[in-house]
Amino acid sequence: MLFVIVLIVLLALCFDFTNGFHDTANAIATSVSTRALSPRAAVLIAGAMNLIGALTFTGVAKTIGGKIADPLKIQHGTLVVLAALVAAIFWNLFTWYFGIPSSSSHALIGGLSGAVVGAAGFGAINYGGFRSIIEALITSPIFAFILGYIIMWILRLVFGGMSPHRVNRGFRFLQCFSAAAQAFMHGTNDSQKTMGVITFALIAGGYQHTMNIPFWVKILCAVAMGVGTATGGWRIIKTVGSKIIKIEPINGFASDLTSSAIIFGFTLLKLPVSSTHVISSAIMGSGAAKRPKGVHWGMAGRIVVAWLITIPITGFLAALLTRLFLI
């Protein structure tokens, strides 16, 4: 059992590392694309603010670890977590290779749900908690698009008559702060998901009896995500920062402000969101407010398709792996 727990922790850190490819990279994509921050400075800021954010809240971790299923009622719970992590890591690497900003959150939630079903059947899923998680994942990008549109519309109304050079210079400066805020908000939500899965495994293995997140789990997960961002996030930064719309500093600030507000709002509700889809939707909303034809809706469509298929694919793969582990 101790060997399996150690393996789960290592795989969880690998997942957070690959999560850095996807989700933390999104937090700094706009500021890098508009040259408000150099890539090196953006990575350092994202890593530091993610770490602080990850240590600040634990509500989302408790939701992931306790609302999908009760770890005390799942036989072979550690193998369930093992299968979920393998499925989620595979999907993260697959979509990273093709530069698709799919959701690590969806991958992990789909993997954990599928693994629970593979081990104990559909009756083991806590449908009330699972439904609240799915509702948050669905509504948060919609809210981000609407709020991004509204904020950009207001900014255009206020600054539309000013010199474009002066506007760009001012908002490029403001992006230094908005990128830091977005990275912090990202840490308050995304970093907690793997913490919740590790805690689920600790409870299932008999090493812990409550959903209180150990401090060492918080530190390891936050550090792993920051290292992942620094190592391989540039593919996703390129997609989010240039292939959805041509981002200007005012767009970047509007989308940063929008996604920060949406992510933090759901964190206060203790609900997980996909930062990938929140940030991408905020960018689309701000772009549509300025020039709808400037939004690359084909790339937006690819993101939506990835959103739709991630949970079913990772769920099926995790269920299959769980059955193989139990043979």
TrEMBL record:
Family annotation (InterPro entries): Phos_transporter
Record field: transmembrane: 43-65, 77-99, 105-125, 137-159, 215-237, 249-269, 304-326
Stretches of the chain forming a coiled coil according to its record: none
Keyword Transmembrane: yes
Region forming the signal peptide: none
Top-level lineage group: Bacteria
Pfam families: PHO4
Database matches in PANTHER family: PHOSPHATE TRANSPORTER (PTHR11101:SF80)
Record's protein name: Anion permease
Source organism: Alicyclobacillus hesperidum
